[in-house]
Amino acid sequence: MKVFKVISLIIFAVLLFPALTFSIDLESYSCMVCHGEKKVEYLKSIHFDKGILCTDCHGGDPNSLDPEVSMSSRAGFKGKPSKKELVLLCGNCHADPKRMRQYGIPTNQLEYYRTSEHGIALFGKNNQNIAGCVDCHGSHTITSVKDPLNKVFPTNLPKTCAVCHSDKKLMGEYKLPYNTLEEYASGVHGKALLEKNNRSAPTCAGCHGNHGAAPPGVSEVGNVCGKCHINSETYFVKSPHFEAMKKKKMSQCTSCHQHHSINYPEVSMFDQVCANCHVPTSGAYKRGQQIKALILEAEEQIDKAKELIVRAKSKGLDASGYETQLEQANTGMLQVLPVTHTLILSEVETVTNGARTVAGDISSSVHNYLESLRMRKVGLGIVWLFIFFVVVVLYLKVKRADQEYELEKKKEKEKV
Ligand code: HEC
Ligand code: HEC
Ligand code: HEC
Ligand code: HEC
Ligand code: HEC
Ligand code: HEC
Ligand code: HEC
Ligand code: HEC
Ligand code: HEC
Question: Residue ranges per domain, the chain?
Fold first, then answer.
């Protein structure tokens, strides 16, 4: 019995030991004894996971419960850092390639941050209203940036930026718009990311950079959009607007599409957007109208073919071949919107002609089929009419023969 007790005691002690040493470690860490609230936050952070302690950021002596000692400058205590200090504090580790190498994450955050509007305002003008590292990341609650609850996770970032960029009073001081979030959320990218969870659509940082938050200048803007919209950019470069852009008379993409409140493109852009810079009597404006007409004409042909196919199918035609062809015409038309960026009529025509010809051919084949069905019906009607006619004639003939026979019989009876 005694042996059993001893063994169970040993097992108990072995099981308890690691938990005990760990909790004792934290329990006796003086900073956490007094700053319980911070401790709770900190224990969930990636810094705690990687063994970064309170003193790594704040200094001080974690072995003394006497605040005069633990938070003394003699123990290297730095207190609550100012905005500039904290940016340099984070940079102390994160900009140190030797230190960060083992984790395999970039070490360019501070370097990029210094080039951003935020960094320039902080280091140049000691502006305390801009975003430092902790305004975007938090201080004690920092988790992996891949954590969906993280403040900088793509779907959360717009709200993190909006804490300041939707603050009417604060933005007023810098003459900046305060409706950026609303505009972004109602535009194509915001809808795609926030409503459809399409992660390839850019969040704020997708265009402004994670740490280089600055509006790209007139000539840089197009590079940002073209990173993802390669097709549109390739064709844009062929247009007369490319030259105008190089002379800084307009910006590459945003002069027609806006930057935050980007709408789904529609043909009406050729009326409204072009008119912003070209009078309706100008050659440039008319070019837009010609391109619009080409697009509408091709779409009309495709719609017509679609309608005919539906009608023919209801009359029993196996239209799968035509449907495949029409699908190809539709796919061809996907090229037309990027190509419009050339503003060259012949380039647009090449695409629309392709689609129009296919749709036209389908329409005439299906139309012929429907016509032959109709002719067959008419032919059948004539045959039925003829048969009816023959039957009537025969009937009349038989009737007449009957009557003659009766008459004959009557005559014979009278004779008798
Ligand atoms: C005996 C309790 C006690 C201990 C031990 C202690 N603190 Fe404090 N600390 C306080 C009090 C009280 C304040 C002042 C009130 C406040 O700001 O919360 C404070 C303030 C701070 C501040 C804010 C300073 C400022 O400039 O606003 C920081 C940072 C801080 N402590 C970090 C630490 C760290 C790191 C340790 C461990 C090395 C530590 N504390 C140990 C009680 C303690
Ligand atoms: C990764 C660096 C880092 C670590 C680790 C860290 N802190 Fe901090 N702490 C900061 C920064 C940065 C601030 C200033 C936050 C701000 O200005 O919003 C701060 C602020 C504080 C303050 C003042 C808070 C206030 O609201 O006035 C206290 C107290 C504090 N830390 C205690 C702790 C304790 C206790 C620990 C360990 C459990 C700890 N910190 C770990 C970076 C750190
Ligand atoms: C204006 C907001 C903002 C500021 C200010 C900011 N960050 Fe970031 N940070 C981000 C975003 C956004 C990401 C990318 C998240 C992702 O990958 O989805 C990021 C990512 C990171 C990462 C992960 C590795 C990487 O580079 O992707 C680290 C580390 C980091 N930031 C540190 C810092 C440090 C240090 C500072 C201050 C010098 C800082 N950040 C300032 C927004 C910010
Ligand atoms: C003492 C060194 C040190 C300091 C100071 C420090 N960090 Fe870190 N930080 C690390 C380490 C180590 C990691 C873990 C890297 C990893 O595994 O990805 C990390 C991770 C991060 C991550 C998550 C990166 C990822 O991979 O998702 C962010 C964001 C971050 N730190 C921001 C900050 C900010 C903001 C500050 C300043 C308040 C700061 N750090 C101060 C060492 C430090
Ligand atoms: C803590 C508040 C704060 C947060 C959070 C913040 N900003 Fe800012 N931002 C500012 C202030 C203040 C300015 C004005 C600086 C100046 O002009 O001196 C500014 C300026 C800018 C500018 C330059 C505007 C111009 O034309 O001068 C851009 C771009 C910008 N922020 C983007 C972002 C993005 C993107 C985010 C989120 C990833 C973000 N900001 C988060 C406060 C913030
Ligand atoms: C599709 C790319 C894109 C996205 C996404 C984006 N921006 Fe911008 N942003 C720009 C461009 C381009 C400019 C510069 C416009 C100009 O100068 O003509 C700009 C300008 C700004 C400015 C300067 C003021 C202004 O409106 O001209 C701020 C502040 C800003 N953006 C913040 C944000 C914030 C916050 C988010 C997320 C909610 C965001 N941006 C999302 C491309 C983008
Ligand atoms: C990080 C990649 C990325 C960047 C940068 C980007 N976009 Fe987009 N954009 C997308 C994605 C993805 C979609 C599709 C959204 C959807 O699912 O509706 C899209 C959609 C669009 C659409 C609507 C297209 C359609 O057929 O409905 C337009 C117009 C557009 N973007 C213009 C721009 C402009 C202008 C810029 C630069 C200021 C820009 N984009 C920057 C990825 C990007
Ligand atoms: C001169 C005005 C103008 C400029 C400059 C311009 N676009 Fe367009 N964009 C249009 C028009 C017009 C359409 C087509 C509208 C329609 O018929 O639906 C369009 C359509 C688009 C589409 C939708 C294409 C698709 O396949 O669905 C995207 C994406 C796009 N543009 C991106 C860009 C990018 C990126 C740039 C810069 C390289 C740019 N645009 C420059 C006027 C412009
Ligand atoms: C932001 C202003 C702006 C917008 C919007 C704009 N353009 Fe232009 N466009 C210019 C500039 C600048 C030139 C260079 C020639 C000049 O200085 O007039 C130009 C030149 C042209 C040219 C070649 C020169 C000519 O006169 O024939 C054509 C064609 C043209 N634009 C068509 C369009 C069409 C179509 C749209 C709408 C889809 C459009 N533009 C929208 C500013 C604009």
Answer: 286-381
Query: Does any ligand 9 atom lie closer than 6 A to the CB of residue 246?
Result: no
139 Cβ inside 6 Å of ligand 1: no
Q: What is the pLDDT of residues 127-144, one digit of tens each?
A: 999 999 999 999 999 999
Mean pLDDT within 193-219: 89
Query: Considering only CA atoms, which of 81, 58, 46, 224 is closest in space to residue 152?
Result: 46
Separation CA 62–CA 73 (nearest Å): 13
236 ligand 9 Cβ < 6 A: no
Tell me how far apart the alpha carbons of residues 353 and 347 are, in angstroms, rounded to a whole number.
10
Ligand with an atom nearest the CA of residue 122: 5
- Is the model's pLDDT at 249 over the cut of 60? yes
Which ligand sits nearest to residue 38's alpha carbon? 2
Q: Is the pLDDT of residue 296 over 90?
A: yes
Give me ligand 8 centre to Cα 340, in Å: 8
Report how far residue 398's alpha carbon sits from residue 387's, in angstroms, rounded to the nearest whole number. 16
**What confidence tier does 317 reach under pLDDT thresholds 50, 70, 90?**
confident
The Cα–Cα gap between 392 and 347 comes to: 67
